[in-house]
Amino acid sequence: MPAVLVPDRLTRHVAAGHPWLYVDAVPEVVGARTGDLVTLLGQGRRPIGHALFDADSPIALRVVATRKDERPGPALWRRRVETAWLLRQTTLDLSATDAFRVLHGEGDRLPGVVVDFYAGCAVLKLDTPAWLPHLADLTEAIVDVVRPRSLWFKGLSGQRGGDDVPEPQRPRLLAGEPPPPLVMIREHGMRMHVDVRRGQKTGMFLDQRENRRLIRQVARGRETLNLFSYTGGFSLAAALGGAPRVTSVDLARNAVDAARDNFVANDLDPGAHAFVAADAFAFLDDTAGTTYDLVVVDPPSFAPNHKSVRAAEAAYARLNASALRQVRPGGLLAAASCSSHVPMDMFLKILGESARQARRPLRLLEVRGEPPDHPTPLHFPEGRYLKFVLALAE
């Protein structure tokens, strides 16, 4: 097994549980190819762990084991899956929910591996091609432990489709029966269709599940606007919670149509609500003066990297200021960010700037991060990406 000497300043970093070593922070890993397991050496060339090597990523090494009794390989991958599955069974209320994250990469000590579960259909997505040589072993562990009807491989994160995608990286069925065009899930009793093959991420945004439940709790009697609505999760939650009218806005026409279909699936009359295919910024400009009792702002990441953070700050501030102007006095703003490059303290400062621009003081009611099925190592702040804030607008 290839080995690499970890600089002294990073050995505590590894021991504390941070799962990444960057290419510019460690010596060259001689004789290793993407997907190889590498022994990590500390002071005196003493083994301190094992990592998965990626020759083409800024994250050169993803730590998979740091304990003496852990030997990387199929048996360890299976134990990781078993531990993660048990954690979900004991920390989530699954009595009326059948969609949740089974494996959250670094948080479940399989860095770069994501598995989501949708009513019996498991969807696997990888953040690095380093796991491809181990895909058969991962598949066997997931099938044996989770026992899904189907296991669909979604490919690599950030990968665009096309004929130029190498065969091993292409989406395909790994086990079981092919998933249907749309999988019907239940989320705290709310029914939604999920397209696991073509939908964003693995099909939908499961990390907002508990926040959708919160919106359902506070929506009664509140006319609601949902910006960046995708397939209408927050919209549906508001309507089921008693919002008399919900306006869903998304740039993608197919997402807006899917949101309408989800209303029908829950015996809600879509004719009593509004579904708009439009750019959210343009919609807010075009409807200036229109007001709502509850506005949900859940945009895609504006900061995919560190270089884009300053521009993202300005965009988030402008967006939420425009949204705030459409919140009636005493109404609610629900604002979210999914960028790991915008930490919670920065996001709260951004909302403060939005409140200043809109001249609408805010009172915080809820400040939330990821739900229990998205665990994060304490010493891995990069993993704390989700921010969700519910605030009352004066």
Automatic annotation (TrEMBL):
SUPFAM superfamilies: PUA domain-like (SSF88697), S-adenosyl-L-methionine-dependent methyltransferases (SSF53335). Residues 157-179 are annotated as: Disordered. One of its GO terms (biological process) is methylation. The keyword Glycoprotein does not apply. GO terms for molecular function: methyltransferase activity. It is found in: Cytoplasm. Keywords: Cytoplasm, Methyltransferase, S-adenosyl-L-methionine, Transferase. Residues 161-170 have a biased composition (Basic and acidic residues). Residues 174-375 form the S-adenosylmethionine-dependent methyltransferase domain. InterPro entries: PUA-like_sf, PUA_sf, RlmI-like_PUA, SAM-dep_methyl-trfase, SAM-dependent_MTases_sf. Residues 11-64 form the RlmI-like PUA domain. Belongs to the methyltransferase superfamily. RlmI family. This is Class I SAM-dependent rRNA methyltransferase. It comes from Nannocystis radixulma.
